[in-house]
Write a structure and sequence with these properties.
Strand content: 35-45%
Strand order of the largest sheet: 2-1-3-4
Low-confidence stretches: none
Number of helices: 1
Largest sheet: 4 strands, antiparallel
Distance between the termini: 35 Å
Number of domains: 1
Mean pLDDT: 92
Radius of gyration: 11 Å
Helix content: 10-25%
C-alpha cells in the first residue's frame, strides 16, 4: 500500500484535532486506539478509528449512547 494507510485513528479535544495517524493494519490501528484512550482519554476527548477506504467509522471512544 502506498500513502499513509487505510486505517485512520484520530484524537480530538473540544472538537479540535490533537493527534492522528494512519496504519495499514486494522489490528494495529485498534491497538493504537486503545493505547491513546489509556493515555489521553478524559472528559472532552474523542478517539475514532475510521476505514479511509470505505469512510466507515469502525469504533469510537467514548461510545455513542
Amino acid at each position: 500500500m502506498t500513502g499513509p494507510g487505510r486505517y485512520h485513528v484520530q484524537l480530538t479535544a473540544a472538537g479540535r484535532p490533537v493527534v492522528h495517524g494512519w496504519w495499514g493494519s486494522e489490528a494495529v490501528a485498534r491497538r493504537k486506539l486503545a493505547r491513546w484512550v489509556g493515555d489521553w482519554g478524559r472528559d472532552g476527548t474523542r478517539v475514532t478509528l475510521t476505514d479511509e477506504e470505505t469512510g466507515e467509522t469502525l469504533t469510537e471512544w467514548p461510545a455513542e449512547a
